[in-house]
Design a protein that fits this description.
Layout (H helix, E strand, L loop, with lengths): L2 H26 L11 H36 L13 H20 L5 H4 L6 H10 L10 H38 L7 H41 L2 H6 L3 E2 L15 E2 L2 H32 L2 H12 L6 H20 L13 H25 L3 H9 L4 H29 L3 H6 L17 H8 L9 H35 L1
Antiparallel strand pairs: 1-2
Length: 495
Amino acid sequence: MPVFWLVMIVLGLAALGYVFGRHRALANAGGDSRHLHSLPSYYGSNVAIKTVVPALLVMIIWLFVQPFVVDGRVIGMIPDSEIREGSNASLVMAEVRRTADGLDNAVAAGVMSDEEAGNARADVSDMTARLKDAGQIVTSTITQPVLLAAQEYRDLRRASALFMTIVVLIIAGAGLVWGMAGAKPDFRARNVVEKSIRMLLVAAASIAVLTTVGIILSLIFNTVEFFRLYPITAFFFEPTWLPSFGGGIDSDGNPLSKLGILPLLWGTLYISLIALLVAVPIGLFAAIYLSEYAGSKVRSIAKPMLEVLAGIPTIVYGLFALLTVGPLLIGVFGDEGLGWMQAGTAVMTAGLVMGIMLIPFVSSLSDDIINAVPQAMRDGSFGLGATKSETIKQVVLPAALPGIVGAILLAASRAIGETMIVVLGAGAAARLSLNPFEAMTTVTAKIVSQLTGDADFASPEALVAFALGMTLFILTLGLNVFALYIVRKYREQYD
C-alpha cells in the first residue's frame, strides 16, 4: 500500500476515534458534560492522539531504517567482480536501485509481467533491451548479478512495505481501543492531551536542533576524511586552486591536485567587501530617510517597495548581473572605454549586484533599530537647540550604532554565503588579485562545481567541498554570533 494512503487511513481512524471518544464520554456521563473531568473534546482528542501518534511514529522509524536494512541485505549479494576499478559498492548499489525502479515502472506500464520481472533466469541482454524500450534509464548492459540483486531488492522492498502496513494498522487499531477505554467521566483527558501537545512541541524543537547537529556532524566527518587524504597545511596555505579529477601523486609523493583555499577565500571576501560598500551606505541612508524624514504615507509605500528586493530570487540577480550589469560595465571600463575590463564577468559585476540584493537587509534592520531609539533622546537634543541633521548625526546614530553594526555583520554573512550571483557574475577563475575588474570565484561557487556530476566521494577532489563548507560555516557562524551579541546587547539597553 502506498505510504500516502496508509497515512490517510490512520488519519481517518483518528477522526473516527475523536467522534466516538467524545460521544462515548458523554454517554458514560449520562449526557451531562458537567459530570466529566474534562471537556468532551479532550476525550475525543485523547483517542485521536493515541490512534495516530504511535502508528505514524512507527511508520517514520520503519521508513528510516528500511533502506539501511534492505541495502545491507542486497549489497551482500553483489560479488567483488562487479565493483570495477574506479567504482565502489555505493555506485553499484545505485545501479541496482535504478534497475529495480525500472522493473517496477516497466511492470506498471505493461511492458512486462510481474513474473517476467522477477524471473531469476531471464536473459540479461533481453531484459536490458526491454527496459530501454520502456524508457527506463539503465547502463549499456545489465549484468546477471545486478539483475538478481535488483529482483531481490524489489522483493524485500515490497515485503517490507506489506509488513509495515500491517504493523501500522495494528498499532493504530490498538491505540483506538486504548483511547476508547479512557472515555470515562473520571479520566483526566485534559491532562493527557496537554502533556501530549507539550511532547509534540518538544519533538518539533528537537528535530530542528538534531537537524542542525546532523548537518554539522556530516561536515565534520567528511572534512576529517578529506584531511586524511590531503595535507591540512596545503589546504590552508597553498595559494593555488587547481583540482585534478584524475587524482594521483607526483614523483615527490605530493598530490597532483592543488586545493588551496586562499584564492577562494580571497575572492569571497573581496566580492563581499564590494557588496557591502554598495549596500551599507545606500541601505543606511534609506533607513535614516524612512525613519526620520519620510511621512507616514511615503513610508507606507517606500518601505514595502524597498523590501521587495529581498524577495527576488538570487538566480534573477545573477541573470541581471550577466545580461545587464556586466555589459554596462564593459561599455565604461572595457576596451572602448578605460580599457580596464576584459569581460563582463568580474568581481565588480558580482559585487555591485550583490550589494543591490543586500540593500533591504541593511535598510530594514537599520530602520527598525533607529526607530527603537527612545524619542526622549531626540526631544532632548531638539530642546538644546540642535537641528534635525545634528540630532541624527550626534544622538540617534551613536545610540543605534551597535544595532547597525549587527545589521551590517548579518548582511556580510549573507554575502559570504551567496552562490548564484557569483557563478553568473564573477566567473570561475580562482586567483589572488587586487584588480576588481578581473574574474574571480568564491568558496560557495567551488563547492557547487566540485559536487556537480558523478562525484566519487572517496577522492579528495570531491571531499574538499566539505572542507570548504566547514570553513565557510565557521566563518559565517562567527559573524552571526558576533552580530547577535551586539544586537542583543543593544536591545537590552533600549527596549
